[in-house]
Specification:
The structure is a homodimer of 227-residue chains. Chain A folds into 2 domains: 137 residues, Nucleoside Triphosphate Pyrophosphohydrolase, CATH 3.90.79; 68 residues, Winged helix-like DNA-binding domain superfamily/Winged helix DNA-binding domain (Arc Repressor Mutant, subunit A, Orthogonal Bundle), CATH 1.10.10.10. Chain A has 227 residues and is α+β, with helices and mostly antiparallel strands. Chain A is built from 5 helices and 10 strands; from the N terminus they run ββββαβββαβααββα. In chain A, strand 1 and strand 2 form a beta hairpin. The first copy, chain A, is 27% helix and 29% strand. At the A-B interface, strand 1 and strand 5 of A face strand 1 and strand 5 of B. The structure holds a DNA duplex (27 and 27 nucleotides).
Chain lengths: 227, 227
DNA sequence: GCAAAAGTGTTGGGCCTACACCCATGC
DNA sequence: GCATGGGTGTAGGCCCAACACTTTTGC
């Protein structure tokens, strides 16, 4: 029987900004095991709590972040993945607009909290490196067949932000004309009559907005989103 | 803390044959709760047992089936999914050649075991209906971008078996010429100089074999399998 | 010889890729 | 006026979908 087996949840939360690219929200552990090492936010689930609620609670407790997109990633259950005892972790994968959490501060349970570039990960507690690798794979593939990238951007964004995001996610240069043609052909973006705030030189870009209602409607009718 | 939370594994095992199409391996429960109802094979995991080992063990104990393809599907953890207590289930998704288990017999833990057509599912214990729906979705989409269908067929098969399988999985008629052209273009099938045993009228078909080594090699070189 | 299943090529259209110049703004 | 970033169209090739007749076998 599974009496002594415990369950945790862990969250791989992605953020994005132009300068740093894709980053992950990590906490520095305050307690043993792996005290002082970076780890994914997460923790034990309560007996009367759904898995998603546990993730959202732990995430908020440890980092102050409220997530806008969350999906289950994978369950990690190797016998020896935690030195304390048999602990199985249900990992989740989340997206937030990291501009809302620029100056993130450690809460009581963690020694430190920060956004860390995925190109630049430190060594991590437990099997969290493996979890992150899986999450990155998932993000990279999912973003190609579902329009989830918007969760990482402001709700109104210039088209170039989307280009940059996809370029950095897919890790290869994008043909701006083809990309725009294709993306617009899905008919899920609304072109606004507003312009991006000017930052330095260059022509200001028009702002766009993701229209989720339209996306859902087209999906019903067999739209294939694919980049 | 998660002291009182228990963990089970469940297996959605798919089989296939020409007459019945896609079927799932189910057991009729011998004990409460849901005594006498059909359910997925599965059960509690042992403290020193990896998740996959638990699935394989439970599956063998309850049905005598040894799986050849197994992957994790999803973890179901709604607070009230089990009337006994808080039980979280890690569901797996498996494929076997059901010809090897034509006359399957109930073992000690189950009242009955059988292959049930997915078009014809009875009511099921727990949230197993939801689990199966998720597994079916996964099978249908996965078979389009990874060559896993062979696990359901004999190791040597006439091309028409593959056609029929894909037709039944994707639930739409297949253009035989285009399908064959495309599939052969991946270069992962070996054409043998043997012919299928004759069953009734009709010209006997050549036998083919999946060449996993070739598949892996081509995958390294960026082969995109996609049907 | 007829019914059943296997084997086999070509063509047209649509989509994707490749590619370069002009425009609006800040300094 | 120059540097920076935004906006935009076309042509060629490739891939995919559509489509039907012949061959081999059992009865």
């Amino acid at each position: 029987m599974s009496k002594k087996i415990k369950i945790t949840v862990d969250a791989v939360v992605f953020g994005y900004d132009q300068e740093s690219g894709i980053r992950i929200l990590l906490v520095k552990r305050k307690y043993e095991p792996f005290k002082g090492e970076w780890a994914l936010p997460g923790g034990f689930i309560l007996e009367s709590e759904n898995l998603e609620d546990a993730v959202e609670r732990e995430l908020y407790e440890e980092t102050g972040v409220r997530i806008n997109y969350l999906e289950q990633l994978y369950t990690f259950g190797k016998v020896d993945r935690d030195p304390r005892s048999r602990i199985i972790s249900v990992a989740y994968f989340g997206l937030v607009n990291s501009n809302h959490y620029k100056d993130i501060r450690a809460d009581t349970d963690a020694e430190d909290v920060d956004w860390i570039k995925i190109k630049d990960l430190p060594s991590l507690a437990f099997d969290h490196k493996v979890i992150i690798e899986k999450a990155v794979d998932r993000l990279r593939s999912k973003v190609r067949y579902e329009p989830i990238g918007f969760e990482l951007l402001d709700s109104k964004f210039p088209f170039s932000d989307l280009e940059d995001l996809y370029g950095s996610l897919l890790d290869k240069p994008i043909d701006r004309r083809n990309f725009k043609k294709k993306f617009m052909s899905f008919g899920i973006l609304t072109e606004l009559n507003e312009f991006a705030p000017k930052k330095g030189a260059g022509r200001p870009g028009k702002l766009y907005q993701f229209d989720e209602a339209k996306y859902k409607a087209r999906k019903e009718n067999g739209l294939f989103f694919e980049i």
